[in-house]
Amino acid sequence: MKIGRLPALVRTTTFRLALLHASIFILFSASLLAYLYYETAGHLGRQAEAELNAEFGELSAAYRGGGIDRLKQAVTERREARGKFFYLLQDGSGQKIEGDFDVLPAPAPLGQVVNVEFAYDARTTQGEPIRRSAEGRISRLSEGGVLMVAYDVGDLGEMNRRITEVVWRSAAVGFVLSLIGGVVISRSAAQRAEQLAKTTEGVMGGDLTRRAPVFGSGDEFDRLSEQLNAMLAKLERLVISSRSAGDSIAHDLRSPLTRLRNRLEAGLRA
């Protein structure tokens, strides 16, 4: 039985209004959530990328200005400052000169810069070992050495994950609210239409005194009800006039027909 009801439900105005309202609300919510995600998680990612570019640019400038010795000094100073970046400087043979790691997480490029993502071992504030994620950039120096600058993405990734969860939960809540709002709005319209249908059914059943309800809201249903009521009032007057005319004609014909009947009966008796 449910399968038979489905096509009829889909064809109703109530269903279409609910679907339209839900679609508009979902589209608006999706656009808003996408914008919020872009301005939060996306902004954090772009900011981290910009800081990496700036850090890499400063170290490249130090290398161009003083060679490998000046670059080593710059890396040492940054390591001692305990900033957010990790470093690794190697010579042409792959030996570590300065840095936070012993080996590169990926093969060094040949005459180009590559972006890498890798995991590394760290320790918590309590001294417990932990595996964390990082992203960085590796560049081959003109003298044959290699420079890597990286930053930890654990906190950034956790923030992105939380923002993503909030966005998806908000999307789910928005979807439910859109359906509820669509049903409520369409239900109100369906009830007004049902009242008009009951009025016409009563008139078709012979009750010419039935009138469509007017709630005074001034909406299109009220205007339709007023026009329908005016039509029904005019129809009622026409029917009453027709009945009156019929009664008058019947009354006028009653006396001549009675006399004619009496004469016919008298002739038959004679």
What does this protein look like?
The chain is of the alpha+beta class. The protein folds into 3 domains: 2-39 and 161-195; 41-152, PAS domain (Beta-Lactamase, 2-Layer Sandwich), CATH 3.30.450; 208-269. Helices cover 66% and strands 15% of the residues. It is built from 5 helices and 5 strands, in the order αααβββββαα. The chain has a 5-stranded antiparallel β-sheet. Helix 2 packs parallel to helix 3 (41-80). The model is unreliable at 1-5 (pLDDT under 50).
Low-confidence residue ranges = 1-5
Instruction: Indicate the structural class.
Output: alpha+beta
Order of helices and strands: HHHEEEEEHH
Give the strand order, joined by hyphens, for the main sheet. 2-1-5-4-3
Superfamily at the CATH H level of the largest domain? PAS domain
The domain count comes to 3
The CATH topology of the largest domain is what?
A: Beta-Lactamase
**Overall pLDDT level:** 79
What is the global morphology? rod-shaped
- How many beta-strand segments? 5
Please count the helical segments.
5
Q: What percent of residues adopt helix (DSSP H or I)?
A: 55-70%
Oligomer: single chain
Summarize the model shown.
The protein is rod-shaped. The protein has helices spanning 2-11, 13-39, 41-80, 154-204, 220-269; strands spanning 85-90, 96-99, 113-123, 129-140, 146-152.
How are the elements arranged and paired?
Layout: H1 2-11, H2 13-39, H3 41-80, E1 85-90, E2 96-99, E3 113-123, E4 129-140, E5 146-152, H4 154-204, H5 220-269
Antiparallel strand pairs: 1-2, 1-5, 3-4, 4-5
